Each structure stands twice: as structure tokens, then as C-alpha cells.
């Protein structure tokens, strides 16, 4: 192995589509660094079939049994959201680092409970927010940090996706207790995390949401206006009702506009830097990314393994990973109460801290929304 790099024993927890379609290809790109030693799923047939498909030596139906027998260095949690907390708790207790699919958990209280189980130097739990890790986002993040493009002023963060009625026939979808929320929580979280990783901390949010067309307990669309600590103002839209699907982010700085339009992942070709009039062409040409790395589970896993090598907290964990949960919590609180929410209000005494619907305060028909 290269100096400072080790090989790690990895377990897959949850043998559904996301594990096979995204995580295993990312792992295969790191074959020299990862040995997948076990797969776990409550469905024994699915666990066995997944293990056979990917050449994994052992499959289990019980997480604790697997942890004791296989002793993985890293566990990748690919279960439905309601099972994330228990899975992460068990893995951390067994001494395994964790990479957990989004959404992290179902509330800020659950997030903080897991953070309290981490130890200095590891094990840590990081969360899957792969859009931060493409080369274009990394380039823009550095430009914002050093002021290359001027101050951030105006932004757009829109997740306009489409999920038909059949999508919500899966029992855990569209329910507060099992999915944690609607498209704000389960879909738009990716673009919002990318936005937050670029613009930093927010100050205040004002939001609306509705259940317009899908038979769900949660919302199927939400809208928000967010003010950042920098003063920048951003429009946020999350929808599963949009036939022409698009993930679109735009940031207007004093010297440039930067945009990305994609759906589930981007490369450099999806991004555009537009200088303001008066910026020299040779200056603007130097803004483009020097390399071309797609946003992907592969890119984030590479970054995560580097943190594991060094015994350091990975990106998209701890306070950094909490940002998206904070914004989502406040968006729901503002939409349900009809009041603006400031970030400092998200404390344990707040009813939305423990339940994203405020403990049952949201009704899909809007008749009992607290105002």
C-alpha cells in the first residue's frame, strides 16, 4: 500500500438499491484499499443474493452478530432512514467508523445523540453528501474562501424532481416517523448541503410548504427564503411534482455568476462561470477547475478514506454534517408555524428539535397548521 494508506475491512448494512447502484461501484474503485467482509439485511434472501452478486464472503440478518463476527473497520449504512440511528449506534459501539446514507437521522436530537457517542480520533460517523466533492464545487469553495469572485449576494438552490404516486407505495416513504419528512428531507437535502458547504452558516429562514398532489403525510413541495451570515439571500425550492426534472444552483457574487444544472450528479461541463462586465478575460479564464472529478459516492469515499488514514474527522460529519439538518428543521418549523426561524433557536427546548413536524403539528390539508 502507498505510505500512510491502509486496507480496511468494510461491511454493507442494508442490501437495497443504493448499496448496489452507488456504494459497491464506489468500493470497487478502491479495490486496493477495501475488503468487503460482510453484508447485512433483515431479509436473509436479499442479503445472501447481494453477497453472492458482489463476491462478499458472509451475509447476516442481525447487525450485532455481524459486528462481533466480522469486526469491520468501516460500516456503510444503506438502510431506510428510520433505521439509521440504531445502526450507527451499534457500529460506533463496536469501534467501527461509519459512513451513513442521507438523510442522516430523523431529527436534530437524534443527530446530537449520535455525535455524543463519537470519540476523539474515531470512530466517527460521516454522512453521504457526495455533491460537495466534485472538482467544480471544490474549486468554487476555494474561490469563495479567498474572495476571488467577490462577496456572495444572491443565490438559488432548486431541487425540482418528479416522483409518481407509485413511488410512495413503499411503506416507509412519505411518513414523518419513518422518512423524517418529504422532498425537503429526502431529496433536496443534497443540493442544500452543497449550498451550505459553499456559503457557510445561515442566519434566518422564512418558508412555506404544501401537500398538493401526493398521498403522503409530509409535504410534497416546499419553498424558502434564507439569509446567510454573510448577508447573502437565497431562494430554496424542493419538489417531487416537477415533470421536467432539474437540480439547479446559482450564486451571484460581486464579480461573477456561477451556475450548475444537473440531475443526480455533475461534472465540470454542468457548471458555468460568467464574469461581470469589466472583468478581464484572462482573469475569468483562470477561474475554471484545473481537474475534472464528478460528484459521486466514489469521490466522497476517496475523501473519507483519507480521513480514516489520518484518524481525523471526515467532512460531512459533526458540526459540518449537522448544517443540513439544521436548515431542514428550521424550514419545517417556519412553514408549519408561519414564523421566521433563526438558527440559534434550534435548541432542545424547541418542539421541532425532536420531531421535524413539531410533534404532529402538520396536517397535509393545512387545516391544523399552527399559526
Notable characteristics:
6-stranded parallel β-sheet, 8-stranded mixed β-sheet, 371 residues
Compact summary:
The protein is an alpha/beta fold and 371 residues long. The protein has helices spanning 17-28, 44-54, 63-70, 84-93, 108-115, 135-146, 176-179, 183-186, 189-199, 281-285, 297-310, 318-337, 351-354, and strands spanning 8-13, 34-40, 59-60, 74-77, 97-100, 125-127, 152-162, 202-210, 221-228, 233-239, 241-253, 256-262, 271-275, 341-342.
List the helices and strands and how they pair.
Layout: E1 8-13, H1 17-28, E2 34-40, H2 44-54, E3 59-60, H3 63-70, E4 74-77, H4 84-93, E5 97-100, H5 108-115, E6 125-127, H6 135-146, E7 152-162, H7 176-179, H8 183-186, H9 189-199, E8 202-210, E9 221-228, E10 233-239, E11 241-253, E12 256-262, E13 271-275, H10 281-285, H11 297-310, H12 318-337, E14 341-342, H13 351-354
Parallel strand pairs: 1-2, 1-4, 2-3, 4-5, 5-6, 7-10
Antiparallel strand pairs: 7-11, 8-9, 8-14, 9-10, 11-12, 12-13
